[in-house]
Hints:
- By secondary structure, this protein is α/β, with parallel strands linked by helices.
- It has helices spanning 6-20, 24-43, 58-72, 90-101, 139-150, 213-218, 228-231, 260-272, 287-293, 330-342, 351-359, 377-384, 390-404, 438-451, 456-478, 485-490, 492-499; strands at residues 2-3, 49-54, 76-82, 107-109, 123-127, 154-158, 179-185, 201-207, 223-226, 249-253, 277-282, 298-301, 319-322, 346-349, 372-373, 407-410, 416-419, 422-426.
- It has an eleven-stranded mixed beta sheet with strand order 1-9-18-17-16-15-14-13-10-11-12, sandwiched between helices. It has a seven-stranded parallel beta sheet with strand order 4-3-2-5-6-7-8, sandwiched between helices.
- The radius of gyration is 26 Å and the shape is elongated.
- 47% of the residues are buried.
Amino acid sequence: MKIFNAQQIYEADDFTINKQQITSDALMERAAESIFNWVNTRLQGAQVQIHLFCGIGNNGGDGVALARHLVENGYAVNVYVVNYSEKRSKDFLINLDRLKERKLWPEFLDSDCEFPEINHEDIIVDAIFGIGLNRAPNNWVAKLINHINDSAAFILSIDVPSGLFLDRVPENRENVIRANHVLSFQAPKLVFFLPQTGGFLNQWELLDIGLDQEYLHKTETEFKFIGKPEVLPMYIPRLKFSHKGNYGHALIVGGSYGKIGAVNLAALACLKVGSGLVTAYIPKCGYVPLQTSLPEVMVLTDEDDDLISKINVSNDYATVGIGVGLGRDKKTVKAFSTFLNDNKSSLVIDADAINIIAETPELLKKIPQQSIFTPHPKELERLLGKWENDFDKLDKAKAFSKKYDCILVIKGAHTITIYQDKGYVNSTGNPGMATAGSGDTLTGIITGLVSQSYSPLYASIFGVYLHGLAGDIAVSETGYESLTATTIINNIGRAFMELFKRPSAEKEEV
């Protein structure tokens, strides 16, 4: 699913209006009817008090039009116009007149007024600012936003939480509505998925308001939201007359004294995702534990007992996942550098391999094209340098990807895969996956997919989705706190099966 920026959304509106020969207020009416239908389906006429806070632009127009539908259907409604400017949008004024024709007179709020009383059992509809906000709210509007947030009432925001920009982080977090639910039009917004902005909403849902499909289909976007429809075409089916050699031989390089478990997890995940053969290269201290716990994995050992001092492997491997539990001993750093001199396999680079590269940037010249980096936030910071905010982070990641022709998997609540100028936002996963070994598991999954001839980009996008889906399946039985990396791995098979469930068998996602 494409993630459109603000300019593209305005262009989609104009394209739709021109092609479908409708007026802009007719498009606004579609939006209002969609919101009303959503609300009415859930409230079923319940006489809860609904407070609509409407700005004076098109987002406010949506709110005023919604108020008309609510009143016409017998709901208890208070409408407040947040009078933050002398300018009014045309469609806002049209809908304000329609509201007055129904004998519903809104209360106008300005810098000198007292804010209305809101009870915690009431419902608030936030339609103050939309996607066009380009400056911080006035001080009195910011106080109103705080008043709304402090009410403890359920807050439903239209399109985006008011005060949230689409292209930057708000300077003052107190100036943004904290929405319980957001009804966004046609496509999600990037700010829903970034750590510094996603916290302003608990849940979001899309409403189809009939924007023209030709525009939506043809327009390229910088970011895409990755769900099942996007990953299914990436899947490579297994052929009946095939053997393990058809599905690649993957090598996992890592481990040090006390951290052999990281290799165990990565190698097991590599197997579970379908790699035909998996070999682990580890220090001698890990030989018995790994060979005992994973009989399907072949094991090569370093000459050193406790760490990796030389990486004596051939170039026969389809791909190499390197870095899990590796450590940064001087011998290991030298071994890694020497390995890069001779390596011809594609690489999945994680953990201490990333840290070594960050400390020795000249190693980047030795990294094969299309290599995949899977850093957690601190590892990413070491690799890219500090960033000002999440948007700057994404810009730096794109620049790094272009410079070194590599793929960056930026791990987080919504892991974002970056390649060149494009970003792919993952839809699966949950807070229980913030646990030891979860990253090692992801490295193994992506390595196993690359070994099966998935392109590095597809392996990254598909691997991240599958990893999160396995975690979502697992957490339904364990709860967040008890979810472990091993449990995630044990549910990779179920995640594959979930991909091919028919829609009729699936539960509706909320």
